[in-house]
């Protein structure tokens, strides 16, 4: 989808087009030429600032591995928190019974139930429901947010029937997927370190989020019990491993981003005495906080400075779904200001932070029509601007530049994790098949991003080694995974 990758091409392609496309009204030729003359260098500079040649990818992968090691050595040892999941018993396939999962992500809140039938029958049935989180709750009180969640869960639980049934004398058990940084204190308790991804709920930081949910369930009169608190990456890893034992890493690319992996207990200095029956545990990297050596632009810096968590979550702000559209919007505003990309003055809609979402830029990149009709419609409907073909081409080019950087850096992060694992356990990737389970709306719905990610992994590992590394979409693995972890940590025999 990349059109005219360098500025001379942009200039020559653009200038050779007729100018009648914009709402059928020809613009003054001289004015348009000078506009493009000022926009083309901006695009070139953006592409240069966002460039991720092999040397940059390698630096990011190495720094990721180093930061992981430093974070495992001691709490606060690096940008990466390297949080211990307290999951050392992974699903075996023998789990039986009815279990629930509840997933608080960033954009949505999901509930799911699964009836597990053990080794032969495996997953007998699943059902889920999804509700988007009202904006005001993201800035409200802890009580309001958890009341909303508990009431959603109560409604869902009311409609249980058909293939789902609870064994006599049992309480319904829940795997609670909570995709924000939590200091886990046991498999079913954890303290919120801080909100991310645009959430600023008051009173939750420093509290046990399982207790918050339990209290809200009590207020609802809902008789359910959280038996596992899991990060979404951990849920994805558990869910994917249920089907494929080679899954060693899980990565989420959705509203935010994070990764976890299987680690040897004996190479975690900060673990101090904690025993794991399997000798391994899942470590949640919280890699969204990574920041070392990333290629950043003026747009990233401004977005960060105006964010609710300036200086934090820089990797997340560079590669995840919440931010890619916003970075593009910021570039387009500057291009419009400096070179009247869309016309004389920047319309209010385009000036509104976060009005352009990552789904929009992804849809624009899928537009294969000759006149980039879909690009034009999105720009008009969402950003309130009229665009001619040359402007649309530049917009697509900006989307591609931002998505390419994001995808390639995500790929470099994955290689960093694999590299760290290989250093400690020779053969992790050099000797066998290793699967990286991927989930999240960004990964699922943005094919170009996905391709850029895979390209970076292949470039970094080389064609031979990269054959051993399978990067696989594990759809809704995290929901089922959380329910499976509720089962493996059930208080009842199974
Ligand atoms: P969450 O991260 O909130 O748990 P998801 O994994 O479903 O939820 O991811 C939702 C995010 O995925 C959205 O915020 C958006 O950034 C991204 N996304 C959704 N649809 C698309 C799309 N069509 N193209 C690109 N990104 C998308
Ligand atoms: Mg999620």
Automatic annotation (TrEMBL):
Gene3D superfamilies: 3.30.420.40, 3.40.367.20. Its EC number is 2.7.1.-. Pfam families: Hexokinase_1, Hexokinase_2. One of its GO terms (molecular function) is D-glucose binding. GO terms for biological process: glucose metabolic process; glycolytic process; intracellular glucose homeostasis. InterPro entries: ATPase_NBD, Hexokinase, Hexokinase_BS, Hexokinase_C, Hexokinase_N. Residues 43-242 form the Hexokinase N-terminal domain. SUPFAM superfamilies: Actin-like ATPase domain (SSF53067). Residues 249-487 form the Hexokinase C-terminal domain. GO terms for cellular component: cytosol; mitochondrion. Keywords: ATP-binding, Glycolysis, Kinase, Nucleotide-binding, Transferase. Belongs to the hexokinase family. This is Phosphotransferase. It comes from Escallonia herrerae.
């Amino acid at each position: 989808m990349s059109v005219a990758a360098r500025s001379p091409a942009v200039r020559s392609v653009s200038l050779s087009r007729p100018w009648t496309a914009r709402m059928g009204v020809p613009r003054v030729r001289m004015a348009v030429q000078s506009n493009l003359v000022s926009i083309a260098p901006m695009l070139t500079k953006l592409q240069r600032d966002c460039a991720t040649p092999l040397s940059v990818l390698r630096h990011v992968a190495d720094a990721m591995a180093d930061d992981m090691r430093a974070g495992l050595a001691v709490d606060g040892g690096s940008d990466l928190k390297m949080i211990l999941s307290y999951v050392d018993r992974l699903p075996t396939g023998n789990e039986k019974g009815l279990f629930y999962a509840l997933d608080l992500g960033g954009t949505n809140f999901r509930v799911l139930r699964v009836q597990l039938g053990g080794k032969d029958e495996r997953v007998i049935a699943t059902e889920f429901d999804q509700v988007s989180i009202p904006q005001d709750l993201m800035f409200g009180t802890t009580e309001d947010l958890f009341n909303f969640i508990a009431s959603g869960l109560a409604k869902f639980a009311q409609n249980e029937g058909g293939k789902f049934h609870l064994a006599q004398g049992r309480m319904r058990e829940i795997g609670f997927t909570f995709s924000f940084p939590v200091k886990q204190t046991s498999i079913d308790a954890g303290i919120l370190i801080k909100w991310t991804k645009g959430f600023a709920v008051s009173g939750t930081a420093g509290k046990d989020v399982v207790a918050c949910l339990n209290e809200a369930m009590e207020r609802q009169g809902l008789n359910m019990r959280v038996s596992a608190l899991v990060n979404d990456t951990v849920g994805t890893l558990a869910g994917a491993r249920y089907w494929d034992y080679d899954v060693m890493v899980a990565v989420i690319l959705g509203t935010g981003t994070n990764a976890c992996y299987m680690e040897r207990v004996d190479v975690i200095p900060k673990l101090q005495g904690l025993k794991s029956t399997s000798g391994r545990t899942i470590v949640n990297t919280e890699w969204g906080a990574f920041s070392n050596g990333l290629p950043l632009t003026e747009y990233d810096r401004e977005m960060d400075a105006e964010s609710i968590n300036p200086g934090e979550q820089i990797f997340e702000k560079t590669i995840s779904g919440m931010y890619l559209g916003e970075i593009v919007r910021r570039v387009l505003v500057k291009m419009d200001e400096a070179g009247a990309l869309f016309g004389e003055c920047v319309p209010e809609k385009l000036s509104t932070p976060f009005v352009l979402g990552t789904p929009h830029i992804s849809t624009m990149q899928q537009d294969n029509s000759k006149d980039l009709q879909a690009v034009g419609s999105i720009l008009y409907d969402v950003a309130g601007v009229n665009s001619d073909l040359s402007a649309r081409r530049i917009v697509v080019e900006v989307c591609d530049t931002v998505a390419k950087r994001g995808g390639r850096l995500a790929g470099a992060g994955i290689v960093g994790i694999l590299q760290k694992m290989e250093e400690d356990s020779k053969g992790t990737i050099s000797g066998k098949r290793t699967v990286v389970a991927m989930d999240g709306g960004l990964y699922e719905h943005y094919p170009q991003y996905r391709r850029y990610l895979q390209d970076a992994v292949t470039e970094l590992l080389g064609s031979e080694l990269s054959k051993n590394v399978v990067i696989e979409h594990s759809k809704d693995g995290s929901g089922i995974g959380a329910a499976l972890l509720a089962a493996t940590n059930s208080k009842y025999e199974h």
